[in-house]
Amino acid sequence: MRPAASFATVISAVCAAAILAGCGTPAAAPSTSPPATSASASAPPSSASSPSVTVPAGWKTFTTSDGTLAFDYPEAWTIVDPAGPPSEGGVFVALVSDYGKTMATLRTGMTSGAACPEKFPFMVYDTEPVPALAQAGVTPRFVYEGRTDPASSDPAKSLTLGYGITSEPEPFGDTACPISHFFTWPPNRAMFSGVYDPFDTTPGAPKNVDTPEAYMDTTEYKDVKQAITSLRPAGK
Q: Is 120:176 a contact under the CB 8 Å cutoff?
């Protein structure tokens, strides 16, 4: 894990198209890994090694309208489907908390990922493989991570924090490309991700969690992580 320089002056996470496409309100550790390999458009989802799924008590299961993917979510949370215009042949779904915050968006049929115009100091707070989504020998992973921009003159934009599933190689060294929460999924790519604002003032939001580390101890973070990591081929 790469520690953040100073979170006392960090004001909020920002949502940039090159970092997390589709985030926001609806209609809104380092190591070296080999590069992710794209699956062909005709390759079927790989789930042979996926264990049987047990849905947590009091949770629901959502299946996308095209019948390809499913995930579990807390009973008090809601699904917005569609959450906006989907990519051609894809879906665009939002997972919304009981107090109205968009926790994550799921999009499929995406044709490109994020560019890497510049690298930034990075932090990885949490990571876990998602074997049910493995494609062409590459297992995506859930990550909760951040990037800092030392050149930013606006403290409110100096730190970006996000969580989601990615097939990108793990960053190494002292800097990394902008956050790219895209994973390989036929016919191209997909994303299931969200952003974290340390100073979210939305009524009902967790209190006194103004650092990324503190947020990990909240029920909200544990729930959204469990929902995202439960993503799997429908029927599994």
A: yes
